[in-house]
Amino acid sequence: MLQGVLQLRRAGEEAQHRLLQGAIAGAGSQQNVFASAENVLQALKNVQAVRAAGGECAPTLYGATLSLPFASNIALISKDGRVACSALAAPGQDMSKFEWWREVLASKVFVISHRMLSPITRQQILAATLPLYGDTGLFEGAISIAIDAGWLDNLLKRETPLSDGVAAVLDDDGTELVSNAPDISRRLFADNAAVQTSGSLEEATDEAGRSWTFATAPLDRQGLRVAFAKPTDQLFAWTTLHVAVSFVLPVVMVLFTIVAIWLATDRIVLQWLLYLRRVTAVYAQGHYGFRPSRMGDAPSEFRVLGNAIEDMALAVRERDGKLREALAEKTALVREIHHRIKNSL
Fold first, then answer.
1. Domain ranges, ordered by start, for the chain
2. CA–CA distance, 150 with 61 (Å, rounded to integer)
3. Exposed/middle/buried for 319, CB within 10 Å: 0-12, 13-18, 19+?
4. More confident call, 207 vs 23
5. Can you give the three-state secondary structure of the chain, one letter per residue?
6. The CATH number, out of the four listed (3.40.50.720, 3.40.50.1820, 3.40.50.150, 3.30.450.20), of the domain defined by the range 2-234
7. Tell me: the pLDDT tens digits for 104-156?
């Protein structure tokens, strides 16, 4: 029983480890995309033609966009939130009304926005933005790359097929950024408190009522987290069997031992005791000529005892014969004496 409890605990730890491995493996490519985006922006901010928003700005950004399979646009944004230069023709577009721009103003480092609809490409994107500061430390604007969210979804689907589990990348407040199965992951990872908990297994149910077990792990940047879920019945299928065996096997072994002892006792001891009892009953009735022929198949101890009883019966038979002969001789002598006395009278 204790072994079953320990195995159940160990199975939980192994399941957590497998889920975390799946989560980290599924998010590795996503993390590489974000790192590549930041590196490109770091390089572009040092290009004077881009910082000056001159005639070479748009072609430079356009060329950089073409070199990145995940980018749909790159734009230079002025400090007042308007597009100063863009790979796609959208100068003057006001970005200051968007929440992600306010996050950029409050940050001095690379920022990744929530999933949103691009006002330029009209596609689902993640705005990865690098604030720009001058030598005096004053904010001069930002350079932003629009990461195609659909491309990230497809990448995650290739890296982690739905048959392996449901994977999603979440931001620091639990909002879903990328998923290989958005319809399922939005339901499974809706509990922000559970998603923010690392190092433990959590459970959730989908719309069909199926139970899922998931684990989360932090990524290295921006407070992003990766969550990975598998159906509970698949994750613990063999575990349930193993634990059941751990509980049932000792009971089966005890029953098997009892049956084995009973059969061994009956075959080796009881049946020969009963046989010897019948043999002694026959001898008790005076049938000393009976020979216990089955004793040859008995264990050596009972065979010795059977032979001793047989020898005793043989000795009793011989003694009985002698007594009968002596009694017959005595009877004959008494008759002879009686006859002689009668004749003398």
1. 2-234, 240-338
2. 21
3. exposed
4. 207
5. CHHHHHHHHHHHHHHHHHHHHHHHHHHHHHHHHHHHHHHHHHHHCCCHHHHCCCCCHHHHHHHHHHCCCCEEEEEEEECCCEEEEECCCCCCCECCCCHHHHHHHCCCCCEEEEEEECCCCCCEEEEEEEEEECCCCCEEEEEEEEEEHHHHHHHHHHHCCCCCCEEEEECCCCCEEEECCHHHHHHHCCCHHHHCCCCCCEEEECCCCCEEEEEEEECCCCCCEEEEEEEHHHHCHHHHHHHHHHHHHHHHHHHHHHHHHHHHHHHHHHHHHHHHHHHHHHHHCCCCCCCCHHHHHCCHHHHHHHHHHHHHHHHHHHHHHHHHHHHHHHHHHHHHHHHHHHHHC
6. 3.30.450.20
7. 998 888 999 988 988 777 889 999 999 999 888 899 999 999 999 999 999 88
